[in-house]
Amino acid sequence: MAASFKIGVASVTKTIDIHRPGMEPEQFTAEIRVRSLDDQEALDKKLKAAETHNTKHVREDLLALGGIVGADDKPAESSKELLDAVYKDPYAHVALCKAWGEVQRGVSEHVAKN
User: Fold this and answer.
1) Residue 114 above 50 pLDDT?
2) Is 60 exceeded by the pLDDT of residue 111?
3) 87-96: long-range contacts at Cβ-Cβ below 8 A with a sequence spacing of 24 or more?
4) Got the DSSP string for 22-83?
């Protein structure tokens, strides 16, 4: 039996898959804020009016990361610095933008992977 729908969920955790050329597939998790429809509409109006033309809203909604290791292969603690660094990585950035859109549209993990 499925759980009851819970109103007001502020964020969800998505699995992010990265495929860099010549490397094994990589994966981490990202906690992403869920915007209300009002917030989404306001952002959409700003984008259409060219008040903003970037993906900074994705970084603003990126709350925490998991499953990331540093250059020393030790687990990295989620922090503002880590969030910024991963957001600025070109491979992670594209995957995070895709995941952000899926979260805002309510696409489930199962559907997103198929």
Assistant:
1) no
2) no
3) 87/58, 87/59, 87/62, 91/18, 91/19, 91/20, 92/16, 92/18, 92/28, 93/55, 95/16, 95/17, 95/18, 96/16, 96/30, 96/58, 96/62
4) TS--EEEEEEEEPPPHHHHHHHHHHHHTTS--SSHHHHHHEEEEES-B-TTSSBPPP-HHHH
Residue 102 predicted with pLDDT over 90 = yes
The neighbouring-strand residues paired with 15 are 29
Give CA–CA dist 84/87, Å, rounded. Answer: 5
Phi, psi of 26 (to 5 degrees): -120, 160
3 state SS of 65 = strand
Interval 69-99: pLDDT, tens: 998 999 999 999 999 999 999 999 999 999 9
Cβ atoms of residues 72 and 50 within 8 Å: no
| pTM of the predicted protein model | 0.82
